[in-house]
Amino acid sequence: MKPTVAIVGRPNVGKSTLLNRIIGRREAIVEERPGVTRDRKEVTANWRGHEFTLVDTGGWMVGGDSLDDKVSRQSEAAIEAADVVLFVVDATVGVTDDDNRVARLLRPRADSVIVVANKVDDASHEAFIWDLLSFGLGDPEPVSAIHGRNTGDMLDRLVSLLPEEDKPIEVIDESDNVVGVAIVGRPNVGKSTLFNRLIGEDRSVVHDQPGTTRDSVDTIVDSDKGPVRFIDTAGMRRKARIDEETEYYSLVRALKSLDTADVALLVIDATQGVTHQDQRLAERVDAAGCPIVVLLNKWDLCDAEARADVTEQVGQKLHFVGEAPVIKISAISGKNVMRLWPALSATIEGYQTRIPTRRVNDVVRAAQAAHPAPAGARILYATQGATDPPTFTLFANHEVPRTWLRYLERKLREDLELGTTPIKLRVRRRSE
């Protein structure tokens, strides 16, 4: 495993900006106000050939509400698991009571802590850093995360504190063998609770306040089908109802996670039924080409009448997802959550399936014989060119009407037993 580096500090000192600076891209959501980051976000960083896991955390504070306490516990968990800690302080503000509280927490492991004096944008501000010696954590490193000033020197010191490796780590490209499963849904339907249940630890902050999750958080779990990357996403609402920049960026990150995922778990609050927004999200997942597993969460809170009603709503309002698996669960108690694995396994198997060329052509010929394409169009040859999802290339004599292609898609799905797995058809004309 790669060494772990945690970025901690009180709110609004520039932790997420520093993470973005170190990895060289805008991975964490950044705004000029406290409390934007809440969950632990892990990314891979590299400096001068040294690879390590960088963990962004929410602002550590005491005396706040229950949500603040949960965010602080996430920071403490990151500190406990880290090999090196970057303690970020706003040098222009000086030492605050909250900074001192974080310093007391870090003092027992002072040898593996670097005090990062952030917002030192030029040499005239460097005099501010000497007050930070009162932490008892060694000499501060003056940097400007937003401009990149002195971050190279800070990283040189960081890699010198990383534990030595007994042997080089073999870097494996996970993109080809890790299945991405995005957990999507409206705000406050239980996505983070389910995420924590599936990965076996409290990685995401769970609170009854809608919009608690703001950025996508992912963790890899080993399963019978190989490694699976579960991605917890922010709750998605209609753009017309988004009234702040943070929620807009959360939506963008959630949609990006959905577009890159292999499977989507659509979480619906069974106590509220299938809403119009649930329908819109299901359509968005379908458009992304992801197979869907529908999860009716909070099932244990529904009486018999409500259960019958929501089951009927799924059939009526989500009819376009076909025979997608529908599982009734309680994420908070764990009831029926284990039933997700067989459904997920079957969905992944269908998503990665490869059909022999001869069988594909047999189905195409039978479909053409039963219902020929109009205007003399004809498929001369067909083959499966890719998986994830199954993609079929059709060689035709000339342009094939879309209505007939929908018919052929249905026949391929039925005869090849692809179930609800999304499939793609690509038509190439003989002249091409």
In short:
This protein has 432 residues and is α/β, with parallel strands linked by helices. The protein is built from 11 helices and 15 strands. It has helices spanning 15-23, 66-81, 97-106, 151-161, 191-199, 245-260, 276-287, 304-317, 340-351, 357-370, 402-415, and strands at residues 4-8, 41-47, 50-56, 84-90, 113-118, 141-142, 179-185, 217-223, 226-232, 263-269, 292-297, 326-328, 379-386, 391-396, 424-429.
The low-confidence runs, each spanning 5 or more residues with pLDDT under 50, are 30-38, 166-175, 204-215, 240-244
Structural class: alpha/beta
Distance between the termini: 49 Å
> Major sheet: size, sense and barrel closure?
6 strands, mixed
What is the string of helix and strand elements?
Answer: EHEEHEHEEHEHEEHEHEHEHHEEHE
Q: Round the Cα radius of gyration to an integer and report it.
A: 26 Å
- The total count of helices amounts to 11
Give the rounded overall mean pLDDT: 79
Give the CA-based shape: elongated
Beta-strand percent range: 15-25%
Strand tally: 15
Strand order, sheet with most strands? 2-3-1-4-5-6
Helical residue percent band: 25-40%
